[in-house]
Amino acid sequence: MSFTINNQILSSCFELGDGPVSKILLKNNADYPWLILVPRVENIQEIDQLPTKIRYLLIDEMSSLSNLMRVYFKPHKLNIGALGNIVSQLHIHIIGRFTHDKLWPHAVWQAAEATPYHEQSLQPTLAHLRAQVRLLFKE
């Protein structure tokens, strides 16, 4: 089965690995810990369009990764959503929010420009998250 991720998503992210249903990505935005899950199903725009079994697995995947975000980043709140207004390919955002972040309590979508990760913080973050994704999903 062929599967491609929209270039607009890929160009702003780092790959972390695969869950049972999704490709798991880290958005290159150091302002917020931000995972993006892209279900490996072609031509789907909404969660309710997924086959039932895949939809349930996706919810489990989202829950596992939400817990990983809480443990590793310790956010005050998680924002989880699948908007698709700009990129219609189904993808789910899991964003860690802090009461001291730039836009709290407003939506991160209002941010004019993302702050990319610095190399010295990026590499340890990627290594840790990739290892955790492998452990979670036994790659």
TrEMBL record:
The record's annotation in SUPFAM superfamilies points to: HIT-like (SSF54197)
Q: What InterPro entries does the annotation carry?
A: HIT-like, HIT-like_sf, HIT_Hint
**Domain HIT residues, every copy:** 35-104
Coiled coil where?
A: none
Q: Tell me the GO molecular function terms.
A: hydrolase activity
Q: Which domain of life is it from?
A: Bacteria
Presence of the UniProt keyword DNA-binding in the record = no
This protein is called Diadenosine tetraphosphate (Ap4A) hydrolase-like HIT family hydrolase
- In its UniProt entry, the species of origin is given as Legionella beliardensis
Q: Which gene encodes it?
A: hit1
